[in-house]
């Protein structure tokens, strides 16, 4: 009998748990440890943040589903890792603390044979002074509660605009090293669309602020893509959309402080500037959770497991941008020191960014961190689950399933406005996610046929279809496993 | 505001019939790209 413990019930943790449960007999235990009671389909938070979808539509409670499917569930948070056990417990374990119920505050040693760390990112609001969701007129859409608050504030501003108030809206990234520009991009387009619907578009000045060197970088060094019969750069595509919608932009900006209605930032020229606003939505930087790890004698071995995020089979050697290779990126998400520990999704430490690093004249590193969107999070979780299943079934380590972000495609279906007939979406796919300059030297590291952009109503329908399909899949309804990650 | 998307382009982007076929086309294309496989990048040693 094997016991597989999964930390986190987000996209990657839930995908791993559901595949493990489906393919392993009931002799084997699958246990999820996560502080959240609900599963949330994060990509639809964008629509919660513009009041077009209720947060109840993007979430469901995990406990009843896990009970029905035979997946153990502890509503607790992992605190520290003991991959060799300790003097009293010979099995490896994760020290976890319950967050609700009678056991709230109590700690438990959750032992395992295999551990999947799918704890995603810590939303590092503290990394930017004054960036606190719901304070200083700045909001977030990273969770459904944040998105609910964002909509309350935006709605209040819309009502003021209807009474004649002119407003400034600022959307983008809130730190020199934020990622997830795609989510902010979706949100700015949706907000702009909603202002039209409420007949107040002419009352608002909308500005994009981001740490990207150029528009359309998306933390992926931008991309060359096919658009209809043309080949264009992602910055040209995004510029076209922003200009057409009257959205201004500030790029290469490291937001470093937020005061009531004022964002302070430094740009790549080393200038310190401010931008005022009546409503802002700024994505924070993502960091690791600050977990500690100990060996059986309780010596600190955190550096064997973590480098901020969890160390996996990536090449972490420090090297200049020109020497970066697609081979630096992990393939199996296995920790090299403790081979029964894996970290898919956002939980793994990337070898470096994907975008070219850029330093301001004052020496501030203003480089988007590499994104790990829903699709790669799901794909990497599934391949980790499959390797564990094979290892258990074969009685020896099996790492046949591989999935490097340098050999994997991703689709970013960015909603650009909600509405069955009036909606819009910007569909962008990239293959591979991390550019492979050896394979595709003439097309900026990507396969042009598989890297394309498209704008139109169909994009909105696609995003909506994905919303329903992925919630169906997450609820493990009949034949859920036929829907790809 | 600079009109960067022409009236004709906009018509194509919003026409539900054209977009219905686009939806089918994009769904298949995206499925092909994303679910079409993934793998390693390093040679086995
Ligand atoms: C607003 C927004 C919109 C987005 N839109 C898209 C999109 O359109 N398409 C797309 O592909 N991607 C999108 N993304 C990205 C996508 O949501 C992420 O890639 C994905 O959620 C990452 O999955 P994950 O499981 O690694 O992390 P998460 O989903 O963050 O899950 C982490 C889990 O770990 C749990 N956890 C945290 N701490 C602990 C602890 N100490 N112990 C145990 N568990 C813990 C959390 O509660 C959570 O359940 C969007 C992201 C945002 C913020």
From TrEMBL, chain A:
InterPro entries recorded: FAD/NAD-bd_sf, FAD/NAD-binding_dom, SQRD
Coiled-coil ranges from the UniProt annotation: none
Protein name (database record): NAD(P)/FAD-dependent oxidoreductase
Domain FAD/NAD(P)-binding: start-end pairs: 3-150
Superkingdom of the source species: Bacteria
Organism per entry: Bizionia saleffrena
Gene3D superfamilies to which the protein is assigned, alphabetical: 3.50.50.100
GO molecular function annotation: oxidoreductase activity
